[in-house]
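Escalated from tier 1: 2'-deoxycytidine-5'-monophosphate holo job.
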Amino acid sequence: MSHPEAKARLVIAIDGPAAAGKGTLARRLAQHFGLPHLDTGLLYRAVARRMLDRGEEPADGRAAERAARLLDPAEVGRGDLRTPEVDRAASIVAAEPAVRAALRSFQREFALARGAVVDGRDIGTVIFPDAPVKLFVTASAAVRAERRWRELADRGIAVEPAAVAVEIAERDAQDRHRPVGPLIEAAEAVRIDTTDLDPEAAFAAALEAVQARIGASA
Ligand code: DC
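Tier 2 regenerated the structure:
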């Protein structure tokens, strides 16, 4: 990248299914390019957490919309957003079109201020269809389930591996089949399959893809 102003507004959109390695990759790319990172899954998780705390039903669309509109960015930093309970509730609120609409401007404003690496499910298709770089990060369902199980185990959350595999399959189905903001691979996205890649190799592949799109001096 030769032009500093262009770099300041660079948006790298990363989409893909749960536990494919998007987060790790997004953090590394953000660090490499000196950009902020927005994990948009945390927005849906924070909306779900707020509803659970208030005893609201995640499937209540009006309450979910209200929770999304009232979302305080500080809530996205909460330490209790990655529990199985929040996993389930977040995928329900994420299917509500009014929630997606309420969170859209938050995502655009965040990234357009200084540029950003933004990861989620509909970033390259709905939120930033104009992003100069789009990556689609995926991995086999079995490998993703194993990674999620390990991540939970490392945090002291004991669950059966088979139960994690079922959850991943259910969330994949929900993410891919919801009518609004479904997980779809953008036609122009560069696909990175991390099934057989460690984080270092995935980063190298992503960096090559970004440089191919924006110029080798990046
Ligand atoms: O990536 P994650 O597991 O933290 O995402 C939490 C939930 O939010 C998951 O059900 C997918 C959904 N999500 C979404 O619908 N759109 C996004 N841009 C990001 C996440």
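The first strand starts at residue 11 and ends at 15.
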